[in-house]
Amino acid sequence: MTTRAELTEKIVAHKTFNDIKWSDVAAAVGQSKEWTTAALMGQISLSKEQAYAAGNALGLNFSDEEIALLMTVPYRGSLPTAVPTDPLIYRLYEVVNVYGTTMKALIEEEFGDGIMSAIDFTMDISRKADPKGDRVTIVLDGKFLPYKMY
């Protein structure tokens, strides 16, 4: 019996070895590179058709069991430790630690008491050329959900 974590490792190893881009897999699946990557990393479930399309794009002939794992609603949260140790993920964690209260204050000032949805949500990651070194641009776009009074 394969676990979802083992399937993720298989996908990532195969993708890396064969120099396949997430954006190419996403085009075959019909979703954004961000959504498709999250799904294949085990954080979002795919439809059967999307799972087969991903397998074809990756050149992997997924078993029925693997297709079922890709279709299963996951337990979300991909960090193995409370404080991330991977340097890139830690820097994002640091951004939230340093600027989280600022983001919260500015969102509440603009929208009121509520949260940004991570369900009705999109993300875009892109590269921006800069003579001092290319920049990473991350756009998080979530619907505002006000707390309701009752």
UniProtKB/TrEMBL annotation:
Pfam family of the protein (one): Cyanate_lyase
The residues annotated as the active site are R91, E94, S117
Keywords per UniProt? Lyase
Query: What's its catalytic activity?
Result: cyanate + hydrogencarbonate + 3 H(+) = NH4(+) + 2 CO2
In which domain of life is the source organism classified? Answer: Bacteria
Note whether Membrane occurs among the keywords: no
Give EC number(s), comma-separated.
Answer: 4.2.1.104
For this UniProt entry, the molecular function terms from Gene Ontology, in alphabetical order, are: cyanate hydratase activity; DNA binding
Cyanate lyase C-terminal domain boundaries: 78-150
> Which family is this sequence assigned to?
Belongs to the cyanase family.
Q: What role is this protein assigned?
A: Catalyzes the reaction of cyanate with bicarbonate to produce ammonia and carbon dioxide.
Name of the protein: Cyanate hydratase
Organism whose genome encodes this protein? Thioclava pacifica DSM 10166
